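Severity: low
Component: inverse-folding endpoint
Summary: output formatting inconsistent between runs
Steps to reproduce: submit the following structure tokens with default settings.
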């Protein structure tokens, strides 16, 4: 893992401090659900900066995203599945986007599509996704 730059460290501290401050405020109000969500958000932000980054331009040594004979959209969906496969648990949109350096809106759109076809499932409580057990129809 490459060390964080001073700018990344500053941004990480600001992001995590903001989430933790909000979490304390919610805790003082007795709102435990929001507190839990804000603490998870702080953890996701830490993971964003510490997670390994995946090189979107190369798959199996080929410059696939720039090859006009390969569907870059389909390839990105597979890259999301690959990140999820390597994960030790469910991942949120923010975490996947950070690892792939892909916009959250794009990740969300791909995850919704993958969920529709049954390749991923979404936990309605945590709002995180995991790979589904998928079998071909018989």
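Observed output (run 2 of 3):
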């Amino acid at each position: 893992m490459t060390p964080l730059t001073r700018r990344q460290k500053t941004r990480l501290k600001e992001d995590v401090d903001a989430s933790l401050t909000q979490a304390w405020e919610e805790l003082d109000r007795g709102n435990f659900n929001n507190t839990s969500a804000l603490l998870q958000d702080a953890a996701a932000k830490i993971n964003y900066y510490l997670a390994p980054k995946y090189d979107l331009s190369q798959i199996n040594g080929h410059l696939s995203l720039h090859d006009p004979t390969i569907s870059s959209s389909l390839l990105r969906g597979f890259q999301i599945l690959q990140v999820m496969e390597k994960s030790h648990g469910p991942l949120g949109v923010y975490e996947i986007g950070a690892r792939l350096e892909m916009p959250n809106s794009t990740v969300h759109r791909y995850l919704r599509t993958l969920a529709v076809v049954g390749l991923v499932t979404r936990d309605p409580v945590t709002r995180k996704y995991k790979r589904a057990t998928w079998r071909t129809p018989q």
